[in-house]
Specification:
Layout: H1 8-21, E1 28-31, E2 37-39, E3 42-43, H2 50-56, E4 64-67, E5 72-76, H3 81-87, H4 92-99, E6 104-106, H5 107-117, E7 123-126, E8 133-134, E9 139-140, H6 144-155, E10 160-163, H7 165-173, H8 177-198, H9 208-221, E11 232-235, E12 256-261, E13 264-265, E14 268-269, E15 272-277, H10 283-302, H11 309-326, H12 335-338, E16 369-372, E17 375-378, E18 383-386, E19 389-393, E20 398-400
Parallel strand pairs: 5-6, 7-10
Antiparallel strand pairs: 1-4, 2-3, 4-5, 8-9, 11-12, 12-15, 13-14, 16-19, 17-18, 19-20
Helix pairs in contact: 1-2, 1-4, 8-9, 10-11
Length: about 400
């Protein structure tokens, strides 16, 4: 399968779009992510900073993009001979072909140029770093942005940082036709793979990891870069842990299996969730599944241009609360009671990151891509159900990009 790819014209236009939003004369400097140690002398698989990729298309670590209204160049650090033997050398011609940036310099010359550009200004625009440890998610941030800003300030002590994350979020939130084409391919690969897995006869899979293995194969076989995020294959009570990525449990008889996965095509993510039964679904399982399915249909009916996500989320919570009451899971419709069995948001933006940038406070605009993923999780019954589809906000309403594989409980 030959997949569409992003072009140097796409990345060149993205840089121009950013510069058009910023004050005249402002210097922009953005760093790529750095490699992260996995153990001893081995690194984790490299994942590029989404903003840097959006502006350059380059999937190499430690490179710096510098630009103002008149010029742009890349700074490429030298590699030690031993690393070059193992990892290869960075090819400047390839970087130019991908990014559309022809001016590529080494580190010493690049930093001299930065010094010259900021000599008569106290401002430089870049991406503000996240905290070194993001407590909410229990994870450490890639240190590349922090190290880059420290180095900038060593060159000019009084330098003030202009954070361009909001500007890039506003640009990235509205997907361009080429982005939508690539995302549709990621969605189609995900759907085709899920269909293949879910059409296997009962008993074909004994463990969650066997399902994961077939999904991984399906994604790569169909031409994607692999998973856009850690795959979730969660059966029985495991499905009540929203981001269960262990995928080791033996499949029990008459369990529901939540499969939440997405292929990566040219850096863009799909994010689809379907539910599979290990045996003939019980009436109770069918009722829970139908409640989630009805909630998703209600959420679809609410979405469109001009909708504010906070209002929409409140409406969905009330609706799913009524379904939980019908199921006799809850006896009152207090938000805290509903949230015991529906603890997450219905929608998030989708793009280069599976939880992509976007403004959740402003009305939705045509070109935004979101997930719609209601769920009901009942640990007391060892059951979790989530149905997730990807939708595009259009001028008329919405388009369900993942409609080719309707959610069913067979």
């Amino acid at each position: 399968m030959r997949l569409s790819s992003l072009t140097r014209e796409f990345f060149t236009a993205n840089r121009r779009r950013l510069m058009d939003r910023l004050p005249e004369g402002l210097v922009v400097a953005v760093t790529a992510n750095g490699m992260l140690q996995r153990g001893a002398d081995s690194a984790y698989h490299f994942t590029q900073d989404a903003n840097f990729f959006y502006l350059t298309g380059i999937d190499e670590p430690d490179i710096i993009l510098v630009m103002d209204s008149r010029r742009e160049f890349l700074i490429v650090p030298a590699r030690e001979r031993e690393r070059t033997v193992f990892d290869g050398q960075v090819d400047p011609q390839r970087l130019s072909a991908i990014s559309g940036i022809n001016d590529i310099v080494n580190e010493p010359n690049g930093w001299k140029r930065i010094d010259a550009l900021i000599l008569n200004t106290k401002n430089i625009a870049t991406l503000a770093p996240a905290p070194s440890f993001i407590e909410q998610y229990g994870m450490y941030a890639n240190p590349s942005r922090s190290r880059f800003i420290e180095r900038l300030k060593r060159h000019t002590q009084d330098l003030e940082i202009v954070d361009i994350r909001p500007d890039l979020a506003a640009i990235r939130m509205i997907k361009q036709p080429l982005e939508l084409k690539v995302m549709q391919q990621a969605i189609d690969i995900t759907l085709a793979t899920l269909k293949e897995v879910m059409n296997k006869p009962h008993g074909y899979y004994a463990y969650e990891f066997q399902i994961e293995a077939d999904i991984s194969r399906g994604f790569r076989f169909r031409g994607s870069l692999g998973h856009a995020f850690e795959p979730i294959v969660a059966s029985g009570k495991q499905a009540c842990t929203l981001h269960n990525v262990i995928n080791e449990k033996r499949l029990g008889p008459n369990e529901l299996v939540v499969i939440d996965v997405g292929a990566n095509v040219s850096g863009y993510a799909a994010d689809i969730t379907r539910v599979m039964a290990t045996g003939k679904p019980t009436k109770r399982q069918k009722d829970i599944f139908k409640a989630v399915k009805d909630t998703q249909a209600y959420a679809f009916s609410l979405l469109g241009p001009g909708v504010r996500l906070k209002t929409y989320e409140n409406q969905v919570v009330k609706f799913i609360g009524s379904k939980l009451k019908e199921l006799k899971v809850i006896t009152n419709l207090k938000p805290e009671t509903i949230r015991r069995y529906y603890p997450h948001a219905t929608s998030h933006f989708l793009g280069l990151n599976v939880h992509d940038v976007g403004d959740y406070t402003k009305p939705l605009l045509p070109g935004s891509v979101l997930t719609v993923e209601p769920g009901i999780y009942i640990p007391e019954e060892n059951t979790g159900v989530r149905i997730e589809d990807d939708i595009l906000i259009t001028k008329e309403g919405i388009k369900v990009l993942s409609s080719a594989l309707p959610a069913k409980l067979d």
